[in-house]
Amino acid sequence: MKQTLAIIMTLFGLLGFKATAHALTVKQVAPQFWWAGMKNPELQILLYGNGIASSDVTLSGKDISIKEIVRQDNPNYLLLYLDLSEAGPQHFDITLRQGKKSTVIPYELKERTRKGSDIQGFTSSDVLYLIMPDRFANGNPENDVVEGMLENKINREDLFARHGGDLKGVEDHLDYISDLGATAIWLNPIQENDMESGSYHGYAITDYYQIDRRFGTNADFRQLVDKAHQKDLKVVMDMIFNHCGSENYLFKDRPSKDWFNFKSEYVQTSFKTASVMDIHASSYEKKIATDGWFTQVMPDFNQRNRHVARYLIQSSIWWIEYAGINGIRQDTHPYADYDFMSEWCKEVLEEYPNFNIVGETWLNSNVLVSYWQKDSKLAAPKNSNLPTVMDFPLTDLMAKAFDEETTDWANGLYRLYDYHTQDLVYANPMNLLIFLDNHDTSRFGRTEELAQNLTRYKQAMTFLLTTRGIPQIYYGTEILMDGDKANGDGCLRKDFPGGWQGDKTDCFKAEGRTSLQNEAYDFTRKLLQWRKNNEAIGKGSMKHFSIAHGTYVYQREYKGKSVVVIMNGTDERQVLDLTPYKEILPQTSATDFLSGQTIKLEEKLELDKRATLLLCF
User: Fold this and answer.
1) How many C-beta neighbours within 10 Å does residue 517 have?
2) Could you tell me which of 386, 324, 279, 305 has the C-alpha nearest to residue 120?
3) How far is CA 335 from CA 34, 52, 201, 301, 391, in A?
4) What is the separation, in whole angstroms, between the first and last Cα of the chain?
5) Which long-range contacts (CB under 8 A, 24 or more apart) does 215-222 make?
């Protein structure tokens, strides 16, 4: 008995609790700490422990008052709502008492080390480099397997298993990313995913306040962000508010049935989120799309429950304040409750006015995507408050445009011209995340043959990095990695060669790449480095011309500086009459940035097949 009591006392000491001989057991405190001086003075503290709901609660803090104590259906939860409007940085105790049983929980309000306005979000002047941490690089093999976690092995031969990549691996290659010319990194989810299988991708979170230990610690993540900032790289964190993993304690021992949709019973979503904005949609269609579950192991949060809403909002603010991240990519944005997501965006941007949030808006038309952007006229009088949306329709068009023969009325580059003529549907076309591929789509090189077509690659990359919007590049695209979604998601998420000890090739280094890979890498690096601080591209207006002779011409301009892009989308040599373009061609000659050659711009311009010119004025 004495030995058992000693063990209990030791465990409580490790958790930071002051245990008595008759102690209440508290397993979770979320968040673990907070900050004084936040714009929203209310703090929700979620306490989870065996039978704690009937406890009397007292605080020892100065100028801190309890606004509300909420007891849920489940006796293992207590929700405290505190008023911090007058409170300064301090340590205080939360005491729970049940007769002779009691537990003292030390808590801290930290002093803020930065102002909210200091956090600079990503913009159209940036280029994001998207990384799936498990598949990028293994910097610390010692955390490949963590005792006690459900998926406790790695197998690099299995595309659906964990491979061992981690935060240290990303940190070790920040110079590679910076030298390439990207200005921000977006990490697929890194919060704890203690699931039995498929945990490598991160989209079934089991603890919103904890980095997955197989990636590293919370402190490791904060260190990664700090080191990225030292190299002028911003960091975007992937978050998921629509659902969590079924091994999350909030679901396994849920506070109440209404924490999850359909009273916590599995009902499959239709995935048809167009119904949210469909004026003809039935109530059933709307509900099944947003309240239905992704899978049985991804229970769907009910954000209409105010306690759920506050828990999720606070978790995102906690990571911004703790780690100093520059942006959030919100997974499955239209699947969650619209009003909640709008309130979340509003509250985050009030606290951090220069921050940015991009929502995954995977819809098949620009009209549907535009509905989700902040200040959309199509959604009025509602407002999503979501600054940036993902331009999936453009991705689909780019997957075809550079493989087809362009005519003046259809196919090839005409698809891109025609799509851009419709940008009036967007409240802010510059705040569109644009990409050739990502972790959920086929790679731009669906096959090895397509990936190694450098003419196709160079034309697509030039377009991506010079058109309106915020470009994102998926890791490995710059070295021509291929993958077809028809072969499964694991095929899209292969290991970056050289990220593991013993890899036969190391594509992080020029000598490890083939001549073809080096040509693609060098081309991409040249464009990315040129794009940095190029205000005509990062901030400029866009003017384009209808397709003529299979050729697309457009200009980016800012404060008298301009860039003109000319692309031949055919397999034939073309001769352009330059008369229609005189308003964007102020000189009779210009240097093509891509080739370094001087291009005469008089009456006619001859273009080789699939030629691309990038002229700077």
Assistant:
1) 20
2) 324
3) 29, 34, 19, 10, 17
4) 83
5) 215/133, 215/134, 215/143, 215/166, 215/167, 215/190, 216/140, 216/143, 216/166, 216/167, 216/168, 218/322, 218/323, 220/167, 220/168, 221/167, 221/190, 221/323, 222/322, 222/323, 222/324
Q: Give the whole-angstrom CA distance, residue 489 versus residue 243.
A: 20
Question: Tokens at residue 372, please?
Answer: 């989700």
> In angstroms, how far is CA 345 from the centroid of its own chain?
14
Task: Give residue-wise pLDDT tens across range 487-534.
Answer: 999 999 999 999 999 999 999 999 999 999 999 999 999 999 999 989
Q: How many Cα atoms are found within 13 Å in the side-chain-facing hemisphere of 312?
A: 29
Joined tokens for residue 523: 């081309």
Biggest alpha carbon–alpha carbon distance for the chain: 97
For 459-478, the pLDDT digits (tens) are 999 999 999 999 999 999 99
What tokens appear for 201 in the block? 């991708």
Q: Which amino acid is at 157?
A: E
Q: What pLDDT sits at residue 494?
A: 97
Catalytic site includes residue 285? no
**Planar angle of CA 165, 167, 170, nearest 5 degrees:** 80
> Is 360 annotated in the active site?
yes
Is-contact 239 314, C-beta < 8 A? no
Given 360, 391, 482, 495, which residue is catalytic?
Answer: 360
* pLDDT at position 12: 44
Quick count: other Cβ atoms within 10 Å of Cβ 489? 15
Q: Which H or E run contains 308?
A: helix 306-323
d(CA 321, CA 608): 53
Instruction: Select which of 134, 331, 351, 478 is catalytic.
Output: 331
Residue with tokens 């009397």: 56
The residues pairing with 439 across neighbouring beta strands, listed in sequence order, are: none
Under a CB-based contact definition with an 8 Å cutoff, are residues 317 and 278 in contact?
Answer: no
Burial 205-237, CB ≥16 within 10 A → b, else e: bbbbbbbbbbbbebebbbbbbeebeeeebbbbb
**Which contiguous run of DSSP H or E holds residue 449?**
helix 448-451
C-alpha torsion sign, points 402, 439, 239, 384: positive
Alpha helices in 472-555 (DSSP H): 515-531, 535-538
